[in-house]
């Protein structure tokens, strides 16, 4: 009877140690920095969204309550930029997902002596976004761009296309640059997932005669399902806030053809100097991201509960 009593005291002692106030003292600097870097800007943005603030007259601030948000309801440019952001994000993530999975499967089948080739697939991802923007800016130049020269040489087109100044082509061009830049992220995630598949599982399913599509469906997809969800969620958040590549290539033009929500917020806040109105856009932007994140997390939790059940 003494042993259970000792075990109970030991567990109580361990719990007391887990809630030692001294731990909070050591964590206080980290919490302070996190609060200053994350919590303060968020709360400050919420407060600015309730004010009428202009950079040209920073001393004159008027509390307007929900006035900025009500103005957004009737702002056609805002809704167009939001819709364009959803299109940009959905196409970019879907294309990068497919290409990343394809390249990961190809890299997984390469012999060990070609391991260096896998590293080359990550080069676009580590390339700074500004460099990616300028690279595609020169590649898709109407006069001397290599894309027009190649397509003209192959007689696909008769003359150079204005990829970045044509409203019908600009968004597709920006998406292409974005997909090229972020596909290696999916390659890295999926490659890590593929290496985690036990070799015995691969051998067993191949002995059963499952190869090709059957192996992909019954072995690879179940092992990569959670990675697919998490990688897609991270990519959606990154693409929803994408700014550098778009601004480097088109600055949101021609007209508003490539103006996403991030670009529109920059224009309103730092070109039109309407800080309060721009902050209201930022709040809506953050709420949309929270909803998307919640949907993905709920989906992931539902799948986990289904597997447990």
Keywords:
309 residues, mainly alpha, two-stranded antiparallel sheet, 14 helices, disordered N terminus
Number of discrete helical segments: 14
Tell me the total number of β-strands. 2
Main sheet characteristics: 2 strands, antiparallel
Q: Low-confidence segments, ≥5 residues, pLDDT <50?
A: 1-7
Shape: globular
Query: For the terminal residues, how far apart are their CA atoms?
Result: 37 Å
| Secondary structure: helix percent | over 70%
Q: Name the strands of the widest sheet in spatial order.
A: 1-2
The run of helices and strands is HHEEHHHHHHHHHHHH
Task: Give the structural class.
Answer: mainly alpha
Using only C-alpha atoms, the radius of gyration works out to 26 Å
Percent strand: under 5%
Query: What is the mean pLDDT?
Result: 84
Question: Can you tell me about this structure?
Answer:
The chain is about 75% helix and about 5% strand. With about 300 residues, it is mainly α. It has a two-stranded antiparallel ribbon. About 25% of the residues are buried. Mean pLDDT is about 85; it is low at about 1-5.
Give the arrangement of secondary structure elements:
Blueprint: H1 2-18, H2 21-48, E1 51-54, E2 57-63, H3 67-73, H4 76-108, H5 115-120, H6 123-126, H7 129-139, H8 146-153, H9 170-195, H10 199-207, H11 213-240, H12 244-249, H13 261-271, H14 275-308
Antiparallel strand pairs: 1-2
